[in-house]
Here is the input.
Amino acid sequence: MEILIVEDEPLIAEDISYFLEEAGYKKNVIVHSYTQAITQLETKNFDFIFLDFNLGEDSSGADLAKEVNLNYMIPFAFITSYADKNSIQQIKVLHPVGYIVKPFNGKEIPAVLELGLELFYSYMDTNKELDLNKINKFANSTLTPQEINILAKLIEGKSNKQISDELFVSINTTKTHLKNIFLKLDVSSRSEAMVILAKCQS
Here is the structure.
């Protein structure tokens, strides 16, 4: 399992990595900015992301969460110093699988990881096939065969790059297909699409 840690405070990032390693999760990559995180996401396949809500730069943790929801199928947990009602409301709409308030203790980190993974994948059964009739009932127009292929890859948790490689198309083509799929399903992100797909498994 590979874990991406996005935290602009190096000591906190190292602490998270240390607690994960203590729990047996050894493959951790630390970055300190939105740009570094995007570079990693484009080149590697991660299973989970620990994400600082306030990255201290122009692009925030919220911006990165939106990018993950739109273009990647990776569960993430926010790490933040804020627990007020307004911050919680901002975070809820981004659909994290966990939320850790600083300062945290070592036991929280692996617990959030394990519970988050269970939550994220519990509603999907990758062994079941999509029911095309059900999908088209949810869609406002019929999906093409290639769009159905891409939906099947979404269920498998594939990233845009993996989908592109397996279907022998460019990443831009994959993104265009996803945009059309989201429009047809009347959703704005992968996470919202996955909720519908879970209902369309036979």
